[in-house]
Write a structure and sequence with these properties.
Aspartate Aminotransferase, domain 1; flat; Aspartate Aminotransferase, domain 2; alpha/beta; 12 helices; 16% strand; 35% helix
């Protein structure tokens, strides 16, 4: 007997439902929609299509909608978003603008914020996480504030392999806080270890790195972590949380504060947002975390309940001692990532990374074989890489757009930053390569 995940309505079901709402046929339900924009032909759907394949086919059938096939990354990624996420997050009780200060009437919201924090802790291998941050760049700036607040030092070392847009946000945030920024030079598209150690002194509050870095390379910090800690500085790591299902976690590496953007956990590109920042840290630094932290407790009847905890922060009390005055509520996007995590699970997250790894390395090798690109770094990468172009990148990207593709990013000096996530197919990559060959 064949088993299906979802059972379609029978003819009897449909007839009964139509009778209840008072119409004779399904088409009558859509009577208010102008006929000229309705698709009139029969939709022929093959059997056993995956959700991504089905969505792609329907977009093609619709014709009027044009969705570019993206090989662009650099901080925002075209990722798999299960359809069920939108179905759940669109429910009225979730689409409220209410900020959950009164725990007694906010249990549902507080619970999924707690689940978000728990998921971030598991992914990063850290002790505690918060929920409030707008996106990866602002969460990283908040992590800098946290390091300064904890160490009482006013200098931060930032690797030049951190995303330039993140660095720009940090510069904006720190401008009127009298925080000095010093940069760690890059070497072969990774941070320069020697330069880091030379610039590390008793004025440095923290060292900020990114893993995988801006160029997609997975960096190695084994030889510098202990030195940073011996200097009584904090290691701040901006990390793509989706990659942590496969690569070494910040907790295993020895990071003190982990931050970044959780957009890669199933949040669509959506023209640049909304996304959600995350932050996690050790138990020792817990009281310096900005934003809200939800804790689990028991009520007077012994029933499980959720509350905002450790509230010596922001607009609550002791504002002058707060790390930050951030008090936003990104909980809808937190719910989005929680549903994604629960749907994929640990094995699913590993599989997503394996597919992205396979896609990006196939694209990389195929580009080299065209003879129009050269290798610049023999270092490990997962889904994003940098390659040297022997042709005009801007003109190539213009050509790709006419064919329905978003090419990679021109980062200067003939360097081309490309990405191939889990949603790309071999056919799409092959078509991309053929356009490059013909260029």
């Amino acid at each position: 007997m064949t088993m299906y995940k979802y059972f379609p309505h029978s003819e009897k079901d449909i007839k009964e439902m139509l009778e209840v709402i008072g119409v004779k046929k399904i088409d009558d339900i859509f009577g208010d929609i102008p006929q000229n924009i309705l698709y009139q032909k029969k939709i022929n759907i093959d059997h056993s299509l995956s959700e991504i394949e089905l969505r792609r086919k329907l977009m093609k059938i619709a014709g009027m909608n044009k969705e570019y096939i993206s090989f662009l990354g650099a901080g925002a990624y075209d990722v798999y978003t299960p359809s069920v996420i939108k179905a759940i997050t669109s429910r009225q009780e979730f689409l409220t603008s209410y900020t959950p200060y009164q725990a007694e009437i906010s249990q549902g919201t507080l619970q999924y914020i707690f689940e978000f924090q728990s998921m971030i802790c598991e992914l990063t291998n850290m002790d505690v996480a918060n929920a409030s941050l707008y996106d990866g760049a602002t969460s990283t700036a908040e992590a800098v504030f946290m390091a300064v607040s904890q160490t009482k030092r006013k200098k931060i070392l930032i690797s030049k392999t951190v995303n330039p847009r993140t660095i720009e946000v940090i510069k904006t945030y720190t401008k009127y806080r009298n925080i000095e920024i010093s940069y760690i030079e890059e070497k072969d598209f990774s941070y320069d270890e020697e330069d880091l150690l030379n610039k590390l002194n008793d004025e440095v509050s923290g060292v900020l790195v990114q893993n995988p870095n801006y160029y997609g390379i997975i960096e190695n910090y084994n030889s510098v972590v202990s030195t940073i800690h011996e200097n009584k500085s904090l290691l701040i790591m901006n990390a793509d949380p989706s990659t942590l299902g496969l690569i070494k976690t910040p907790g295993e590496i020895g990071a003190d504060i982990v931050c970044g953007d959780a957009q890669t956990l199933g949040i669509p590109l959506a023209f640049g947002g909304p996304y959600i920042g995350y932050m996690a840290t050790t138990e020792k630094l817990m009281r310096k975390l900005p934003g809200r932290i939800v804790g689990m407790t028991n009520d007077t009847e012994g029933k499980r309940g959720y509350v905002l905890t450790i509230q010596a922060r922001e607009q609550h009390i002791r504002r002058e001692k707060a790390t930050s005055n951030i008090c936003s509520n990104q909980s809808l996007m937190a719910l989005h990532t929680v549903i994604y995590g629960s749907l994929l699970g640990k094995k699913g997250l590993v599989q997503v990374n394996e597919i992205a790894y396979s896609n990006s390395h196939y694209l990389y090798q195929q580009l080299l074989q065209t003879g129009k690109f050269e290798e610049v770094a023999k270092k490990p990468f997962l889904k994003e890489f940098v390659i040297k172009s022997l042709i005009d990148i801007n003109k190539l990207n213009q050509k790709l757009m006419t064919k329905g593709f978003l090419g990679g990013l021109n980062i200067g000096n003939n360097l081309y930053l490309l990405c191939a996530t889990e949603v790309r197919t071999k056919d799409e990559i092959d078509e991309f390569i053929n356009i490059v060959k013909e260029f």
